[in-house]
Amino acid sequence: MNVSLTEKTAKTLRIEQRIGELVGEMTVAEKIGQMNQVCLVDHAVPEDARVALRSGRIGSVLNVVNVEIVNELQRIAVEESRLGIPLLIGRDVIHGFQTVMPIPLGQAATWNPTLLKEGARFSAQEAAASGVNWTFAPMIDISRDPRWGRIAESFGEDPHLTSELGVAMVRGFQGDDLSTRGSIAACAKHFAGYGDCESGRDYATTNIPENELRNVHLRPFRATVDAGVATIMASFSDLNGIPATASEFLMRQVLRDEWQFDGFVVSDFDSISQLCVHGLTENDKDAALQAVTAGIDMEMAGACYTEHLESLIDEGRVDIGVVDELVGNILRVKFRLGLFEDPYTNPSDFPSKPNADAMRAAKTAALQSVVMLKNDHDVLPLSCGNLRSIAVIGPLADAPYEQLGTWIFDGDPALSITCLQGVHDMVGDAVDVRFVRAMDTSRSRDTASFDEAVRAAQETDLSILFLGEESILTGEAHSRADIDLPGAQVELIRRIRKAGKKVIVVILAGRPLTLTNIVDEVDAILYAWHPGTMGGTAIAELLFGIESPSGKLPATMPRMVGQIPIYYNQKNTGKPPRPHELVFIDDIAEQAPQTSFGMFAFHLDAGFSPLFPFGYGLSYAKFEYKNIRTSIHEVEIGDKLTVSAELTNNGEVGAVEVAQLYVRDLVASVTRPVRELKGFKRVYVESGQTITVEFELQTSDLAFYGRDYKLVTEPGEFRVWIGGSSYADLQSEFQVIARQRGA
Ligand code: BGC
């Protein structure tokens, strides 16, 4: 047998043995203590916390990142409690610690798992240097609704992309071995369906049929479990009538029985007690009963377990065997982290903060995250040689805090290179840069400074507008019903436009915004999300062509909010839209007979297409795909084939393209999406060069959950596309055939 496998098995057995021994020694109160996570302050250890730690009544602490306090907490737990069990120290390290990477949605636009892994590694190291050993990331909720403020924390709408990126982040946080220095436990959240909240209103109800749940929303969770994610967080939301925190279906049947997950599940913040608010339980005691029964191993920031679990056990309503199992799950992660061997943190064991490598990773991530949506007449890239002056305008041009985005508890805005700074650094003295902020915030309706902005636009060669949303407009509980550019920004663009010079807009935002009312008013649009610490440098390098934009949309951009939910991998319906036959609202005859003949699934006022589709993004290169082929026309179930196409760069600069592979199962026992992403590759193509992009497809990649909710690969005809977005039109077909009997 493979040596490392033997070692791994031996280590696992040792851990299981130690868990058994430790649980055997624990009192009921100590067991419940392990299931209790408390929120403490960062500057001192309060006396009541000391007492609780000494008596083993706290298993984990969140939101303490002062390393001296963390070490003191660990010392009390390890040296002053009876069994000396170390603590899990949890923190939301979502897209960086001090050094902030682009928001996760921006990172998703890179389509670059390696980069996400690297970013997570730096974040883990920075966090670990502060004593953190557990992050509540990655968030892998499928998000098809840009109104939802937490879309910023997600990887967008696609299960395959989200799975790949979620796994990459888990690997970055956890490293090859959780016990190595700089590795922290990851937490895939929020299990499950949270991103499907009605009307994008955070915490709102979700109703997701099992077919959709398994084929779309659960897939990234399955992928991270298979990749060894240490923990899972239950969602706040109500899924099909049962809040996730009380869902035996999710936590027991799916997670444990079907997927064999052996880490632990943490509730969301106080979500056990909220079972009462949901109207599921009468009181906290019932809530504790339901959560324990469902298999929520640890309660985050609530007191249902600490106050009621013991009496539930005494009354025989909770079996001590169940508690032992849940406690064992938590201890397993502590053992895997090596905390029993060394619970303390010595910051000098870690690279200094901030460090140049982390900043470089943040810059690369920002560079690759920017999506170019429009570039009329190749107005971009700019060249210092051709410019004497530019106007830099807008509330987000010089906003060190806002460019960091949501969830940056530990981010340091003092490290931010703003867009204005980036442009200055790029052009030096060669170009005169005139900056007019024009609006205090993106939401401002005050137009008093617009005249000054227009003057700057008139008196310079061109304007670059830095617009969008501040970070507070996305994130938890920060959803919007109207996702146009807020405040007077549209008017600002129109006024600048009238100055008659070229207008370039860079949008910093935590969600896809509806840009229909500005897209025709400007010459170029770079969509930069909230790009993080190094955003300004990256954006300037793209504006001035040091690199070509290579980001691609991880979420569809709707024309108008009424199209939401809108996503590329929709079903065909019985009446799919045919563009040339659409009748728009202005063209409807005054009176027409009622008929369903010739009617299609579209909106009279929006058609059916988005403003920009999933996977879309322009480049300074000119890419062309040709000659798609499949290695074989018939593939037996269990085998594989390759799908390839030629990709030529007809442009004048070499650049990276994200080539994408989509598949459609033409006929199946349940209806399947019109396209599904099955592969993607970032490839560099020199100017004038043609390369072959090749994707391997296993028939298992075509599997889906069928009528009985079991994973199945069905024989039949499949269509494939390769191209630069979900609108790729270069297609081929192949056939999956059942394996010959006896073969
Ligand atoms: C969020 C979680 C987060 C937790 C701890 C909750 O409100 O939903 O995603 O990890 O707080 O900060």
How does the overall form come out from the CA principal axes? globular
**Tally of helical segments:** 20
CATH fold naming of the domain at 360-543:
Rossmann fold
Strand content: 15-25%
- Spell out which ligands are present: beta-D-glucopyranose
Q: End-to-end distance, in Å?
A: 29 Å
Describe the protein in words.
Among the domains are: 360-543, Rossmann fold (3-Layer(aba) Sandwich); 623-737, Immunoglobulins (Immunoglobulin-like). Helices cover 29% and strands 18% of the residues. It has a 6-stranded mixed beta sheet with strand order 11-16-15-14-12-13, sandwiched between helices. It has a 5-stranded parallel beta sheet with strand order 4-3-2-1-10. Strands 18-26-25-20-21 form a 5-stranded mixed beta sheet. Helix 1 (3-25) crosses helix 14 (320-336). The structure holds beta-D-glucopyranose.
Can you lay out the helices and strands and say which pair or pack?
Layout: H1 3-25, H2 28-34, E1 36-39, H3 47-54, E2 60-62, H4 67-80, E3 88-91, H5 104-108, H6 113-128, E4 134-135, H7 159-174, E5 187-191, H8 210-217, H9 219-226, E6 231-234, E7 238-239, E8 242-243, H10 248-258, E9 264-266, H11 274-278, H12 284-294, E10 299-300, H13 304-314, H14 320-336, H15 356-369, E11 371-375, E12 389-393, H16 419-427, E13 432-436, H17 450-459, E14 462-468, H18 489-497, E15 502-508, H19 516-519, E16 524-527, H20 535-543, E17 623-630, E18 634-636, E19 640-649, E20 655-665, E21 676-685, E22 690-698, E23 704-705, E24 711-712, E25 716-723, E26 731-737
Helix pairs in contact: 1-14, 2-13, 2-14, 6-7, 6-15, 7-9, 12-13, 15-20, 16-20
